Amino acid sequence: MDKQGNTYTFLYAAAMVIIVATILALVSQGLRPRQVRNELVAKKIDILQSVNISSTNRDAVDVFNRYIGENTYVVDFQGNRVSGEEAIDIDMAREMRKPLEERFFPVYEVRLDNGELKYVLQMRGNGLWGPIWGYVSIEDDGTTIFGATFSHQSETPGLGAEIDSDSFQNQFRGKRVFNEAGELVSVDVVKGGARPGDPHAVDAVSGGTITSDGLANMLRNYFSGYEQFLKNIERESYE
Amino acid sequence: MSSDKEPLFSAKNLKLITTPIGPQNPITIQVLGICSALAVTAKLEPSIVMSLSVVFVMVFANLIISLLRNTIPSRIRIIVQLVVVASLVILVDQILKAYAYDVSRQLSVFVGLIITNCIIMGRLEAFALGNKAWPSILDGAGNAAGYGIILIIVGFVRELFGSGTLSFPGFGTFQVIPQAFYDLGYVNNGFMILPPMALVVVGIIIWIQRSRDKSLIESH
Question: Which family does the UniProt entry place this protein in (chain B) (predicted)?
Answer without folding.
Answer: Belongs to the NqrDE/RnfAE family.
